# Entry
Amino acid sequence: MSQLTEIDHVAIAVNDLAATIAWYESVLGARVVHREVVASDGVEEALIAVAESYVQLLTPTTPDSPVAKFLATRGEGLHHVGFRVADCAAALEAVRAAGGRLIDQVPRAGSRGTTVAFVHPKTIGGTLIELVEEGPAH
Ligand code: CO
# Structure
């Protein structure tokens, strides 16, 4: 059985959060359903609802945040894909057991009260992956 139950979010790094939100709202009729500053990650996010998933627009809040470095080196664009999983710790353990390179060694608190862990893009497909479990770690 797949550990991946849903696309939780597709995260896009942007320079101007307000302008990007305004574009999604005015051009595509999209709706922002959640805003949050995640100080520990140095980011501000806006979640746009797409059915049961989100587009997560990310912008840095500090010059040394990882998203600031991403924008400086690669410019705006796809930053990571968040996969919803039933059990973040179990999914992370499967990646570890397969020899994957982890960014988070253990699950931690994410936005919206979720539990998350990041897997390094060098692990598979050159893409930063976030494992997202609804609610606090169990
Ligand atoms: Co994310």
Summary: The beta strands are 4-13, 32-38, 43-50, 53-60, 77-85, 108-109, 115-119, 129-133.
